[in-house]
Each structure stands twice: as structure tokens, then as C-alpha cells.
Automatic annotation (TrEMBL):
PANTHER family for this protein: CHAPERONE PROTEIN DNAK (PTHR45639:SF34), HSC70CB, ISOFORM G-RELATED (PTHR45639)
Highest taxon of source: Eukaryota
Pfam families: HSP70 (PF00012)
Keywords: ATP-binding, Nucleotide-binding, Stress response
Protein name from the UniProt record: 70 kDa heat shock protein
Lineage: Eukaryota, Sar, Alveolata, Ciliophora, Intramacronucleata
Cited InterPro entries: ATPase_NBD (IPR043129), Hsp_70_fam (IPR013126)
GO molecular function terms listed in the Swiss-Prot or TrEMBL record: ATP binding; ATP-dependent protein folding chaperone
Signal peptide coordinates: none
GO biological process: endoplasmic reticulum unfolded protein response
GO cellular component terms, semicolon-separated: endoplasmic reticulum chaperone complex
Length: 256
């Protein structure tokens, strides 16, 4: 039996390292599987001489072609080269970042020659693929989306994300903080609980830590306050790698 979906809006939980795509259908949220029949798609874009790869295919090329692979682009939305935090982040990236005259960032890759792409263009390649997955699942055109964002995202970051979505053919209906998203999900699952609860939600992803304090009761969630910082699993990985490098260098000075 063919699916009967009429909504053309999707939900995108865009993570630093992996992304989930979903749709509201038949009274519940359904996760849309990717081409590998997986719930999560690696948030990565890779370029070869003639192709643009996304997701698992792109992730498999990171080790072979790190300079042509762009994981973690979420942390570059709305970034300016004058920001010391951005400068520190860029120094850890395997791919080449260059600045535009207005201080925005571009990625330089070898794709049909040497080319430079804005962060929005890179992200749009990824979002376009998600859009196609959703349209294949829904058997209908998808034109709108709701996207999750870290609580630390300011207006320039959100505008950059919306610009990427627009290039991909998606109109952003709304954005929701990742902490509030967790609270909303919890409230939905606790629909029959009439007791009012104050709940602290902690969401640590690949690139951000989000904390939200919410009042949850009978399926509703009121966000009291949110906060967070740009620290995630990727930073822990980098710190561990740097520690190992320094330890090895001290122990084997003759080799280094």
C-alpha cells in the first residue's frame, strides 16, 4: 500500500556530526531513513574532481581526502574571520578556509578545478540531499522545514542557516533551540502526566552543549531559560588527540 502523506514540511535536526530528518504524519513523528536505511546521516560534504558526495559516502572519503572533505560546517554558519574563537576553530580544520573581503569564510576545494564555496553553498549541498530523501519518502514535493539550532546561535548564525536552506529550495518556517526540542519531545511522551515538573535538559552534541530548564505538564513544555557553549564531542576528540601527540613527542624525542 502506498503511503498517503500530504504535508510538505519536514523537521531537520542538523547536528555538527550527524543529522536526523523527520516528518509529522498520522499523529506522530516519523524519522525518515537515508539511502543506507539509517536514522542518522553524517553531516559531511566531500568533493572529488567531478562529484559532490554527501553523508556516509562523504564520511568515507575524509581519511583519504581530508582537504576536500567538509565535516562540521555547522560551526561555521555566520562566522567571521575577525572572531578569535573562529580563528581557533579554523586552525583545527583539515580543509582550507579563506576569507572574503567582508570577513566571511569560504572553503577552497578541488572540484572541477580549484573552487571556493561559501559555507551556505556547502550546507545547501547537504540540505538538498535531505530534501530529496524526504521527497522520495513522502512521494511529494517538499518546500518547507523546521530546523533545530543551538541556543548559542545569534541572528547572523540563523540567517546564514536560512540562506543555505533557501539555496536548497527550503523555506524555513521556524527554528527551535536544541534544548527546547528535547523538552518538547519529553513533554509529548509524558502527555498523560498532569503533574507539573521542572526539568533540566542537557544536550551535548558534536559541537555544542545546550542546557534548557523547562516546566513540563500534560504534554506542554514551557522553556524557562536556555544556555550553552560551543563545546562538544569534537573538541574532546581534538583534546585527546593533542594530548596523545604531546605525550608521544615527549616519550620519543628522537623520532620527532
Amino acid at each position: 500500500m502506498e503511503k498517503s502523506h500530504h504535508s510538505n514540511a519536514i523537521g531537520i535536526d542538523l547536528g555538527t556530526t550527524k543529522t536526523t530528518l523527520s516528518v509529522w504524519t498520522n499523529g506522530h513523528t516519523e524519522v525518515i531513513l537515508n539511502e543506507e536505511e539509517e536514522r542518522y546521516t553524517p553531516t559531511c560534504v566531500c568533493f572529488t574532481e567531478e562529484e559532490r558526495l554527501v553523508g556516509s559516502m562523504a564520511q568515507s572519503f575524509v581519511g583519504k581526502h581530508p582537504w576536500n572533505s567538509v565535516p562540521g560546517f555547522k560551526r561555521l554558519f555566520g562566522a567571521k574571520d575577525s572572531d578569535p574563537a573562529v580563528q581557533t576553530l579554523v586552525a583545527t580544520l583539515p580543509y582550507k578556509i579563506e576569507s572574503t573581503p567582508n570577513g566571511a569564510l569560504e572553503v577552497r576545494v578541488d572540484y572541477r578545478g580549484t573552487r571556493r564555496f561559501s559555507i551556505e553553498q556547502i550546507a545547501s549541498v547537504f540540505l538538498s540531499t535531505l530534501k530529496r530523501h524526504a521527497e522520495s519518502f513522502l512521494r511529494a514535493e517538499v518546500t518547507c522545514a523546521v530546523l533545530s539550532v543551538p541556543s548559542t546561535f545569534a541572528l547572523p548564525h540563523v540567517q546564514s542557516l536560512k540562506a543555505a536552506a533557501a539555496i536548497a529550495g527550503l523555506r524555513v518556517l521556524n527554528t527551535i533551540s536544541e534544548g527546547a526540542l528535547a523538552g518538547t519531545e519529553y513533554a509529548y511522551r509524558s502527555f498523560d502526566d498532569m503533574n507539573s515538573k521542572i526539568v533540566l535538559f542537557v544536550n551535548m552534541g558534536g559541537g555544542y552543549l545546550d542546557v534548557s530548564l523547562c516546566n513540563v505538564q500534560a504534554g506542554s513544555c514551557f522553556v524557562i531559560c536556555t544556555g550553552g557553549c560551543e563545546v562538544g564531542g569534537v573538541d574532546i576528540d581534538n583534546a585527546l588527540a593533542q594530548h596523545c601527540i604531546e605525550h608521544f613527542s615527549q616519550k620519543h624525542r628522537k623520532l620527532t
